[in-house]
């Protein structure tokens, strides 16, 4: 930091950007952006945020500077001089705020993320930029030096001028500024001079900022149309306009999948316009707690009170974007009051009902849309089954499953399953694993396939936590086909003659001795058709997929013991019985038994090391290829 003199009146202080900031600026200016025009969107968005804050603070702050000043954004351009000025009457910044906001990167991890984008040679287009909290710096795409003059709305505040060429340093000096707010000015680079043309500014504002809540003037002309779309009735809404509005508020580049206007009068009065995005942002699915920070915007009598209001929707619905505007809260509510207000609780309850009804009617009337929605957000709404007990029944009806009877891309509901299952089937069966393909190959399915009994195939990782908790549907218990206590007594066709008891029991006994503590028991199977052995869980044991998921969360969790079931009609088992009666000490027997067990483990992804498995396999191949 060094001090220069400024005509002898007030010192100009020079500051260095933090190292991280320098790299970031370099990335922004030199490689990442494809649409320099978005600098204008970012500046307008900052001005609009600053105005929203002022409007909000004005509700309680009697001392605020320039209370009567119009809330507006004013742009001035000079095409000949290639200059640009944008001015707002927002909250402005104190000196500390200037340093904190325009000298550092707000969000941690931003730089790393941007660098990785660069390494992947991805371009940071306008759709991504808003998410990084670096919007202001996009201005360095179109200019070489920026001047920010600002004065905070706090009473007794002082004006400051911030200036930077985006090259590692910036300066700050005190100035006289008559009114609160911020004025940003610069001269365009030669290659960006188009942005000093009136038609271009107008075009960009219409494209990105049409729904900004404050008037945007270019000279005398207002460029945007401020309309509270959510105040209109359904038949006054045009899809095109609504879609544009969605993109604006949700920062999405795609149209929404669907939207729902809501108007409620009675115990509480509110209007809402809600949107289903087409896709779930990946972080929403995989980062725990991400949903917590989302929510629609809360307005009170058309004044924005909170941007991502968490209290309007239960967590499992917070992927829904939109606006809720009520008259039943006072304008000067604090965040704490919003949170605990009975009005909010009522709004949340009504909205949740409306939204679930919306999903239900999508499912009935627009099944393709519903499918897209379910694919994107199914894993999220399932969380509701364990958290929203009031709406559990409705959520259960929304569930969709792949099954042994659905073709790829089609799904079955519990209702359909229950209606089409045979009269003598008493239980609803499911099988959980990592993919439909892997599930279909599992020996535990053999009996069900042979008997034509439908089995739900659960491959969404969330399923093991929520589906078993349903317990029953339409009085029919839901049951994992891995359980040992399933009735397999019905058979379709003549089963091969089982091996005699005196031959079978030594086989089972030797299996038990060989596998020892590794299994809970070894028993004769009634479910297998083509495979020699399979693993199942005891009556009270965990489903294997469930166990795997729990282990991922708690590595010290002891592995539950499984039961090995043996298909006594299978040639391998018969051969083993023969070998045992000829010579029980033949080493091939133990090798084969271990191999069968580990093969079954392998199939369900439970084999931790393949070393023994492979060396045994070679041993067996060697024995099989021995010339006789
Ligand atoms: N016109 C303005 N009036 C008051 N404060 C401003 C103004 N412009 C920027 N700021 C302050 O500077 C900060 C940094 O702005 P920047 O655009 O870089 O990021 P952001 O607005 O926080 O995030 P994003 O770009 O994602 O909206 C803002 O958060 C705000 O506090």
Automatic annotation (TrEMBL):
<dbReference type="GO" id="GO:0051082">
    <property type="term" value="F:unfolded protein binding"/>
</dbReference>
<dbReference type="InterPro" id="IPR037196">
    <property type="entry name" value="HSP90_C"/>
</dbReference>
<feature type="binding site">
    <location>
        <position position="42"/>
    </location>
    <ligand>
        <name>ATP</name>
    </ligand>
</feature>
<keyword id="KW-0067">ATP-binding</keyword>
<feature type="binding site">
    <location>
        <position position="107"/>
    </location>
    <ligand>
        <name>ATP</name>
    </ligand>
</feature>
<dbReference type="GO" id="GO:0005524">
    <property type="term" value="F:ATP binding"/>
</dbReference>
<feature type="binding site">
    <location>
        <position position="93"/>
    </location>
    <ligand>
        <name>ATP</name>
    </ligand>
</feature>
<dbReference type="InterPro" id="IPR020575">
    <property type="entry name" value="Hsp90_N"/>
</dbReference>
<feature type="binding site">
    <location>
        <position position="46"/>
    </location>
    <ligand>
        <name>ATP</name>
    </ligand>
</feature>
<dbReference type="GO" id="GO:0016887">
    <property type="term" value="F:ATP hydrolysis activity"/>
</dbReference>
<feature type="binding site">
    <location>
        <position position="88"/>
    </location>
    <ligand>
        <name>ATP</name>
    </ligand>
</feature>
<keyword id="KW-0143">Chaperone</keyword>
<keyword id="KW-0346">Stress response</keyword>
<feature type="domain" description="Histidine kinase/HSP90-like ATPase">
    <location>
        <begin position="35"/>
        <end position="192"/>
    </location>
</feature>
<feature type="binding site">
    <location>
        <begin position="131"/>
        <end position="136"/>
    </location>
    <ligand>
        <name>ATP</name>
    </ligand>
</feature>
<dbReference type="InterPro" id="IPR003594">
    <property type="entry name" value="HATPase_dom"/>
</dbReference>
<comment type="subunit">
    <text>Homodimer.</text>
</comment>
<comment type="similarity">
    <text>Belongs to the heat shock protein 90 family.</text>
</comment>
<feature type="binding site">
    <location>
        <begin position="108"/>
        <end position="109"/>
    </location>
    <ligand>
        <name>ATP</name>
    </ligand>
</feature>
<feature type="binding site">
    <location>
        <position position="101"/>
    </location>
    <ligand>
        <name>ATP</name>
    </ligand>
</feature>
<dbReference type="Pfam" id="PF00183">
    <property type="entry name" value="HSP90"/>
</dbReference>
<dbReference type="GO" id="GO:0140662">
    <property type="term" value="F:ATP-dependent protein folding chaperone"/>
</dbReference>
<dbReference type="InterPro" id="IPR020568">
    <property type="entry name" value="Ribosomal_Su5_D2-typ_SF"/>
</dbReference>
<dbReference type="Pfam" id="PF13589">
    <property type="entry name" value="HATPase_c_3"/>
</dbReference>
<feature type="region of interest" description="C">
    <location>
        <begin position="549"/>
        <end position="628"/>
    </location>
</feature>
<dbReference type="InterPro" id="IPR001404">
    <property type="entry name" value="Hsp90_fam"/>
</dbReference>
<dbReference type="GO" id="GO:0005737">
    <property type="term" value="C:cytoplasm"/>
</dbReference>
<keyword id="KW-0963">Cytoplasm</keyword>
<protein>
    <recommendedName>
        <fullName>Chaperone protein HtpG</fullName>
    </recommendedName>
</protein>
<dbReference type="InterPro" id="IPR036890">
    <property type="entry name" value="HATPase_C_sf"/>
</dbReference>
<feature type="region of interest" description="A; substrate-binding">
    <location>
        <begin position="1"/>
        <end position="335"/>
    </location>
</feature>
<feature type="binding site">
    <location>
        <position position="335"/>
    </location>
    <ligand>
        <name>ATP</name>
    </ligand>
</feature>
<feature type="binding site">
    <location>
        <position position="182"/>
    </location>
    <ligand>
        <name>ATP</name>
    </ligand>
</feature>
<keyword id="KW-0547">Nucleotide-binding</keyword>
<comment type="function">
    <text>Molecular chaperone. Has ATPase activity.</text>
</comment>
């Amino acid at each position: 930091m060094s001090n220069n003199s400024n005509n002898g009146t007030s010192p100009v202080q020079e500051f260095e950007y933090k190292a991280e900031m320098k790299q970031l600026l370099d990335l922004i200016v030199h490689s990442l952006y494809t649409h320099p025009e978005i600098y204008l969107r970012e500046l307008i968005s900052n001005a609009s945020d600053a105005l929203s804050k002022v409007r909000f603070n004005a509700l309680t702050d009697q001392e605020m500077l320039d209370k009567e000043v119009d809330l507006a954004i004013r742009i001035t351009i000079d095409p000949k001089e290639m200059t640009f000025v944008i001015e707002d009457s927002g909250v402005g910044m104190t000196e500390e705020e200037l340093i904190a906001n325009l000298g550092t990167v707000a969000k941690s991890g931003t730089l790393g993320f941007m660098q990785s984008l660069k390494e992947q040679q991805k371009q940071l287009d306008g759709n991504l930029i808003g998410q990084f909290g670096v919007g202001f710096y996009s201005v360095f795409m179109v200019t070489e030096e920026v001047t920010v003059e600002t004065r905070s709305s706090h009473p007794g505040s002082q004006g400051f001028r911030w200036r930077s060429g985006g090259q590692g340093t910036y300066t700050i000096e005190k100035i006289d500024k008559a009114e609160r707010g911020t004025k940003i000015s610069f001269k365009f680079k030669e290659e960006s001079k188009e942005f000093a043309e009136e038609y271009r500014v107008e075009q960009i504002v219409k494209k990105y900022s049409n729904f900004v809540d404050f008037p945007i003037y270019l000279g005398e002309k207002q460029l945007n149309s401020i309309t509270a779309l959510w105040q209109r009735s359904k038949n006054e809404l045009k899809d095109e306009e609504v879609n544009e509005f969605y993109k604006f508020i949700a920062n999405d580049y795609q149209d929404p999948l669907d939207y729902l206007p809501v108007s409620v009068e009675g115990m509480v009065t509110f209007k809402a316009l809600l949107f289903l995005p087409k896709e779930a942002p990946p972080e929403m699915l995989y980062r725990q707690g991400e949903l917590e920070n989302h929510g629609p915007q809360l307005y009170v009598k058309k004044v924005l009170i909170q941007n991502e209001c968490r209290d309007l929707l239960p967590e499992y619905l917070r992927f829904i974007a939109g606006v809720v505007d009520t008259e039943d809260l006072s304008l000067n509510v604090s965040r704490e009051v919003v949170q605990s207000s009975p009005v909010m609780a009522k709004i949340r309850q009504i909205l949740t009902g409306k939204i679930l009804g919306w999903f239900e009617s999508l499912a009935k009337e627009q099944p393709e849309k519903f499918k897209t929605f379910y694919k994107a957000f199914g894993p999220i709404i399932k969380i509701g089954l364990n958290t929203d007990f009031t709406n559990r029944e409705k959520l259960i009806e929304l569930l969709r499953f792949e099954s042994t009877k659905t073709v790829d891309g089609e799904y079955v509901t519990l209702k359909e399953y229950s209606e089409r299952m045979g009269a003598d089937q008493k239980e609803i069966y499911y099988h959980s694993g990592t993919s439909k393909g892997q599930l279909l190959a599992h020996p535990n399915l053999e009996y069900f396939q042979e008997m034509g009994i439908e089995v739900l195939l659960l491959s969404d990782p969330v399923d093991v936590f929520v589906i078993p908790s349903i317990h029953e549907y339409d009085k029919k218990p839901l049951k994992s086909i891995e359980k040992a206590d399933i009735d397999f007594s019905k058979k379709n066709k003549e089963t091969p003659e089982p091996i005699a008891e005196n031959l079978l029991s030594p086989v089972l006994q030797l299996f038990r001795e060989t596998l020892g503590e590794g299994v809970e028991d070894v028993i004769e199977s009634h479910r297998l058709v083509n495979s020699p052995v399979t693993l199942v869980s005891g009556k009270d044991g965990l489903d294997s997929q469930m166990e795997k998921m729990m282990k991922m969360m708690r590595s010290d969790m002891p592995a539950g013991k499984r039961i090995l079931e043996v298909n006594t009609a299978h040639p391998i088992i018969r051969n083993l019985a023969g070998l045992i009666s000829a010579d029980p000490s033949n080493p091939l027997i133990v090798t084969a038994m271990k191999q069968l067990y580990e093969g079954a483990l392998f199939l369900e992804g439970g084999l931790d090391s393949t070393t023994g498995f492979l060396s045994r396999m070679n041993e067996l191949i060697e024995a099989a290829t021995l010339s006789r």
